[in-house]
Amino acid sequence: MRSLIIANWKCNPSTFKEAKILFNSLKKRLKKIRNVEVVICPPFVYLSSSKFQVLSFKLGAQDVFWEERGAFTGEISSKMLKDLGVEYIILGHSERRQILKETDEMINKKIKATLNNKLKSILCIGETEEERKEGKTFEILKNQIEKALSNLQTYKLRNLIIAYEPIWAIGSGKPCQVNEAMTAALFIKKLISHLYNQKIGRSIRILYGGSVNSLNASNYIREAKMDGLLIGGVSLNSKEFVKIIKQLN
Ligand code: PEP
């Protein structure tokens, strides 16, 4: 299966002009990429500007609201995103969990809404540095997965992707060891097999995210056998980001 590379632009860049430059640069550089599935997740406001130029990559969003329409000031629904050509949604990112106090219950509702709309959900999970030191990593991952997937029908998991993103590795320049990422991915697959069935456990795609760059990216794919990567900081540098993709193409 092709590697899945997700770019999380977070709250960047700060102007439409800069976003357009980045989109155009990616479009040009990614033209000949066939063996890697690339998804760009810009801020909501730049999604429509990229709608008609998306040939070399797919579009994703960084969040969504669980209701389809109505009196929910400031929110954006799965249906609206789908209408713009969005195919993937990042959910439960640690920055949203920590800064915006997003709960597992909210993440569960968002996952259900996106999967009901046949969008692909990328569920982010991961432990803090403190939890890791206390040996609680697997307990945290189990808890986050069980709560996020609570009451979710088995067939809907076809469109679910899980990103293992240790919080201490995000934006810190301290990436997770390749063997640690591999152990976490195996744990997640086993848990999904246990919660659902072996077929789903085996086929669910697991990504790694946290300080990925062009020097370490291919190790997670080739050695740790991750199905893809979620890339934050480096995805804003089109040259460096495409360098990673070319290594995997
Ligand atoms: C992220 O935001 O999910 C992420 C992995 O960021 P970075 O690549 O900058 O660590």
From TrEMBL:
Chain residues that bind substrate: 8-10, 171, 211, 232-233
GO annotations of cellular component type: cytosol
Catalytic activity: D-glyceraldehyde 3-phosphate = dihydroxyacetone phosphate
Cross-referenced Gene3D superfamilies: Aldolase class I
Span of the signal peptide: none
Compartments where found: Cytoplasm
Gene Ontology process terms (BP): gluconeogenesis; glyceraldehyde-3-phosphate biosynthetic process; glycerol catabolic process; glycolytic process
Keyword Isomerase (UniProt): yes
UniProt keyword terms in alphabetical order: Cytoplasm, Gluconeogenesis, Glycolysis, Isomerase
GO molecular function, one term: triose-phosphate isomerase activity
Active site: 93 (electrophile), 165 (proton acceptor)
Pathway participation: Carbohydrate biosynthesis; gluconeogenesis; Carbohydrate degradation; glycolysis; D-glyceraldehyde 3-phosphate from glycerone phosphate: step 1/1
Pfam families: TIM (PF00121)
EC number: 5.3.1.1
InterPro entries from the UniProt entry: Aldolase_TIM (IPR013785), TIM_sf (IPR035990), TrioseP_Isoase_bac/euk (IPR022896), Triosephosphate_isomerase (IPR000652), Triosephosphate_isomerase_AS (IPR020861)
Oligomer and partners: Homodimer.
Family to which this protein belongs: Belongs to the triosephosphate isomerase family.
Stated name of the protein: Triosephosphate isomerase
Organism: bacterium (Candidatus Gribaldobacteria) CG07_land_8_20_14_0_80_33_18
Taxonomic classification: Bacteria, Candidatus Gribaldobacteria
Gene name as annotated: tpiA
